[in-house]
C-alpha cells in the first residue's frame, strides 16, 4: 500500500505540472481526491491492514493528500496570475491614441428664437401659457369673430379632424382660452405649432410656428400696442430697428394692422434683399381686440379693452439669421443646424 500511495503521489504531481487551465486541475482533483478518487479507494481498503500498519498508512495517506492539495493550490495560483497578466496585456490602454469625440447636440435655431422671445416677454411682465394643437372650431374661428364664410375656414385651407375639431391654424385661440378663464387683467404670450393646407415653397410650410400676445385691461389703447411692439422689436433685432404699421383686416381685431421691420441687411437704406424699399417682409399681424371677441369670452368691452398680435416665429428666425428658405428649418440637416 505504501508503494501504491507513493506511486499515486508521483503520478498526480506529474499530471498537475502539465495543466494549462483551471479545468485540467479540477479534473485531476476529482480523479485523485474526489469521492470516488484513487486516494479515497486506497483509504477504503485500509480495513484489510494489520493493527500496526494502519496508523502508519493512515499518516502517509494524509500526507499524500496534503501534498497534492498544496500543489493544486500553488498551480491554481500561478495559473490565475498568468490569466490576469494576459488579460491586462490584451486590455492595455494606449493613452497616445486619438480619442473618439462624442457628438454634442444643441438647441434648434427655432427653439432658440422661441425661448429668447418667451424670456424677453417674461422680463416685460407677461405670462407664458400653452395651448393645444388640436382646437375646437369655436375657439379657432367662431369666438374669434370669423364670419361663417371666411375663406380660412375652407377645407382646402384648414386641416379638419372632424366637423368641430381642427389642427389650429394660428395661436389666436389661446387668447380665447385665456379670456374664458376669467382672470383679469391678462398679459400673456403663447408659442407653438400651427397648421395650414399650404404647399411647401421657400417661405411656406404646412406646419409652422407662431407666437401670440394678448393684453386685456382697463384703458388699454392702440398707443400701448404700438409702443410694446416697437420695444420688443428693438430688443430682439437691435435698437436701430424701425417698425412700420400698415392698416389691415383681421376678424378678431378692430382696428387691425400688419407690421414690417427695417431690412436687417441694409438697416433701412435700401438694398437688393429688400428690393430697395428698406423694409423686410411683414413680421406680424396685430390690432385692438374686437368688442365681439371680448363679449364672446364674457368680458364687458365698455369696461375692458385689449390689444393682441400674432407673429411667425419661423419668419423671425429667418430674418434674424438670414435664412433664405423655410425648408432648411425642418430638414434637420446637422451640417445646417450646426451653424447656430
Ligand atoms: N392670427 C393671425 C394669423 O395667423 C395673426 C394675428 C393678427 C394675430 C392679428 C393677432 C392679431 O393676435 O391681433 O394670421
How would you summarize this macromolecular structure in one to three sentences?
With 340 residues, this protein is of the alpha+beta class. Helix content is 41%, strand content 20%. A hairpin with a 2-residue loop joins strand 3 and strand 4 (165-167).
Question: Could you please describe the fold and organization of this structure?
Answer:
It is a single chain. This protein has 340 residues and is of the alpha+beta class. The protein has helices at residues 2-17, 22-33, 38-44, 53-90, 109-123, 137-140, 173-180, 222-237, 291-296, 313-321, 327-330, 334-337; strands spanning 127-128, 134-136, 160-162, 165-167, 186-195, 207-217, 243-250, 253-262, 279-289, 305-312. The chain has 2 domains: 2-90; 109-337, BirA Bifunctional Protein, domain 2, CATH 3.30.930. It has a 7-stranded mixed sheet, sandwiched between helices. The protein has a 3-stranded antiparallel sheet with strand order 2-4-3. A hairpin with a 2-residue loop joins strand 3 (160-162) and strand 4 (165-167). The chain is elongated. The structure holds 3,4-dihydroxyphenylalanine. The site of 3,4-dihydroxyphenylalanine has 12 residues, from strand 8, strand 9 and strand 10.
Poorly predicted regions: none
Query: Within the CATH hierarchy, at the fold level, what is the topology of the largest domain?
Result: BirA Bifunctional Protein, domain 2
What ligand molecules are bound, each kind once?
Answer: 3,4-dihydroxyphenylalanine
The largest sheet, given as strand count, sense and whether it forms a barrel, is: 7 strands, mixed
Summarize the amount of helix as a percent range.
Answer: 40-55%
Q: State the order of secondary-structure elements, H for helix, E for strand.
A: HHHHHEEHEEHEEHEEEHEHHH
Radius of gyration, Cα only, in angstroms? 43 Å
Dominant shape: elongated
Give me the CATH architecture of the largest domain, please: 2-Layer Sandwich
Query: What is the count of DSSP helices, taking H or I runs of 4+ residues?
Result: 12
The computed structural class is: alpha+beta
The first-level CATH class name of the largest domain: Alpha Beta
CATH superfamily of the largest domain: Bira Bifunctional Protein, Domain 2
Overall pLDDT metric:
91
Total DSSP E strands: 10
Amino acid at each position: 500500500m505504501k508503494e501504491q500511495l507513493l506511486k499515486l503521489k508521483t503520478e498526480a504531481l506529474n499530471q498537475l505540472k502539465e495543466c494549462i487551465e483551471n479545468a485540467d486541475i479540477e479534473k485531476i482533483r476529482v480523479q485523485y481526491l474526489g469521492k470516488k478518487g484513487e486516494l479515497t479507494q486506497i483509504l477504503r481498503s485500509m480495513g484489510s491492514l494489520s493493527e500496526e500498519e494502519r496508523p502508519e498508512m493512515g499518516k502517509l495517506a494524509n500526507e499524500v493528500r496534503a501534498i497534492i492539495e498544496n500543489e493544486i493550490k500553488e498551480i491554481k495560483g500561478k495559473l490565475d496570475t498568468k490569466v490576469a497578466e494576459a488579460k491586462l496585456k490584451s486590455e492595455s490602454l494606449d493613452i497616445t491614441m486619438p480619442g473618439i469625440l462624442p457628438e454634442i447636440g444643441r438647441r434648434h435655431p427655432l427653439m432658440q428664437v422661441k425661448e429668447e422671445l418667451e424670456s424677453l416677454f417674461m422680463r416685460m411682465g407677461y405670462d407664458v401659457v400653452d395651448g393645444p394643437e388640436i382646437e375646437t372650431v369655436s375657439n379657432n374661428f367662431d369666438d374669434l369673430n370669423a364670419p361663417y364664410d371666411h375663406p380660412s375656414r375652407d377645407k382646402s385651407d384648414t386641416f379638419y379632424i372632424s366637423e368641430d375639431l381642427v389642427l389650429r391654424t394660428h395661436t389666436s385661440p389661446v387668447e380665447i382660452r385665456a379670456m374664458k378663464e376669467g382672470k383679469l387683467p391678462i398679459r400673456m404670450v403663447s408659442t407653438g405649432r400651427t397648421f395650414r393646407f399650404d404647399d411647401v415653397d421657400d417661405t411656406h410650410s404646412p406646419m409652422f410656428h407662431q407666437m401670440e400676445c394678448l393684453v386685456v385691461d382697463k384703458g388699454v389703447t392702440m398707443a400701448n400696442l404700438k409702443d410694446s411692439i416697437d420695444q420688443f422689436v428693438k430688443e430682439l433685432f437691435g435698437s436701430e430697428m424701425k417698425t412700420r404699421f400698415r392698416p389691415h383686416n383681421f376678424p378678431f381685431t378692430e382696428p387691425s394692422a400688419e407690421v414690417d421691420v427695417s431690412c436687417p441687411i441694409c438697416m433701412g437704406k435700401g438694398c437688393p434683399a429688400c428690393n430697395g424699399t428698406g423694409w423686410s417682409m411683414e413680421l406680424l399681424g396685430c390690432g385692438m381686440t374686437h368688442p365681439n371677441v371680448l363679449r364672446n369670452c364674457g368680458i364687458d368691452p365698455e369696461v375692458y379693452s385689449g390689444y393682441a398680435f400674432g407673429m411667425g416665429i419661423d419668419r423671425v428666425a429667418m430674418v434674424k439669421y438670414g435664412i433664405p428658405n423655410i425648408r432648411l428649418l425642418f430638414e434637420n440637416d446637422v451640417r445646417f443646424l450646426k451653424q447656430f
